[in-house]
Every structure is written in C-alpha cells, then in structure tokens.
C-alpha cells in the first residue's frame, strides 16, 4: 500500500514528532506524523489503522536493523550528515534546475532526503 519513498517519510516523520518528557523518555504523536506525511503526499489514500500499523513495523525495523529495508541493509546512509547535506547543496547551486529525481540518482539518496535537504 505504501511505496518505499512513503515508508522513508513515515519513519522520518515519526522521529520528528517526538517530544522529550520530563522523566527523560520520549513520546511520539501519531497525528503529527500523519500531518507531516500528508505534506509530502497530499494525494495519498490510506486508513488511520493502516498508517499506524505500517509506522509501527517500519520504526521497529529501523530500530532493530538501522534501516527500513525488508532484507539486508542497502548500504545507504540512514541519516543526512553534514557532508551529505553540503554535497547536495553544492549540486543544487551548480545546477539549480536539475530535477529531484536526477539529484537522487546522482547522490544515491532517496527523493524525500533530497527534498528535506532543500528545506533545511
């Protein structure tokens, strides 16, 4: 039901929705996660329960394997490090009209990561 690109946004939105409690534990807002997902994919059609279940599977997979892939890790970086962000920014400055898909292919990062870098 969800694409690999959507899965990536679900996991990123989950961790962005976190707030630290006074006792040091973290709480995550499912509604905030859904709202962030809808910003990237306004046309996506899903049920609340399907989204909740998919998020749970993906977050558990990420916490256990440090990736959201079903099989072996892909070798792609799981976080946008400062050098990766700088590389993407340099590529955008050199070719401002280059599509996100071409930037994704050139850097080996998923399109949502490229879009996030543009917003940072």
Beta-strand content bin: 5-15%
| C-alpha Rg (nearest Å) | 15 Å
Q: Give me the count of strands.
A: 2
The ordered string of helix (H) and strand (E) elements is HEEHHHHH
Tell me the strand order in the biggest sheet: 1-2
Shape: globular
Structural class of the helices, strands and pairings? mainly alpha
Q: Distance between the terminal alpha carbons, to the nearest Å?
A: 29 Å
Structural domains: how many: 2
Q: Helix count?
A: 6
Helix content: 55-70%
Uncertain runs with pLDDT below 50, 5 residues or more?
none
- Rounded mean pLDDT is 85
- How can the largest sheet be summarized? 2 strands, antiparallel
Structure description:
This protein has 120 residues and is mainly alpha-helical. The protein folds into 2 domains: 4-65, no CATH class; 82-119. The protein is built from 6 helices and 2 strands, in the order H-E-E-H-H-H-H-H. The chain has helices at residues 4-16, 30-40, 48-65, 82-94, 100-107, 111-119; strands at residues 18-20, 26-28. It has a two-stranded antiparallel ribbon. The radius of gyration is 15 Å and the shape is globular. The chain starts with a helix and ends with a helix.
